[in-house]
Predict the 3D structure of the following.
Amino acid sequence: PARPAGAGPAPALPTGALTEAEAKRLAAAYGIPVTREVLAVDAESAVTAAGTIGYPVVLKGVSRAVVHKSDLGLVKLRLADAAAVRAAFAEIAAALPEREGVLVQEMARGEAELILGARWEPGFGPLVLIGFGGVLVEVLADVQLASAPLRPADAESMLRRLKLWPVLAGVRGRPALDVAAAVDALVRLSWLAADLGPRLVEMDLNPILLRAAGEGAIAVDARATLA
Ligand code: ADP
Ligand code: MG
């Protein structure tokens, strides 16, 4: 397969569990669109960051010790003004097990939530996964796996094999979604997985929000473990 322009190389990163911001930096180095975000250490710098990013914003408490942030009340969506940012910052600070900072990020929109995953499978090699997800990924169990790296045509076939493919193609008056953007993100993630090899224990972009055709996709959450 041909490598897409701007896919890699990976930046220097620590081993072990990466923070959301670190995992997004890795994704962005492969040309996968991620949210604009700033790490804030106190409420006033969170307000300043929100003004730069533009309202509405999202605040997230980040800690290497936390896997599912929303379960702990660490994700505050749709914050419309400085007062909402201050209040959210205080709630997150109280709920965080060990404070490493609070991410202030753009509030992205999308018509569907996809999960993109990658991992090194011992005895097999680099794998990628795509499915419908967000918080419902385990419930829906609608995923497709393939070995990396992928050609765009392979990535598109994976999408077409999803049970919820009609949602991407446009059903019952809903718009067709940006399948090309999902294909591009999956191909880029497959190059990331192929390049990192056994160093990439696992990585999830969950969710990537997919917008209407021509409007793109954006990863709003990311997780990765490096060996
Ligand atoms: P968790 O660690 O619980 O998976 P996420 O960062 O994925 O936390 O946030 C939970 C949910 O909040 C996401 O599945 C998504 O629906 C929504 N969300 C998170 N960040 C954003 C954002 N920047 N813009 C829009 N929605 C977001
Ligand atoms: Mg998530």
User: Anything to note?
Assistant: The chain has seven helices and eleven strands. The pocket of adenosine-5'-diphosphate (ligand 1) is lined by residues 35, 58, 60, 68-70, 75, 77, 105, 107-108, 113, 134-135, 207, 220-221 (CB under 6 Å).
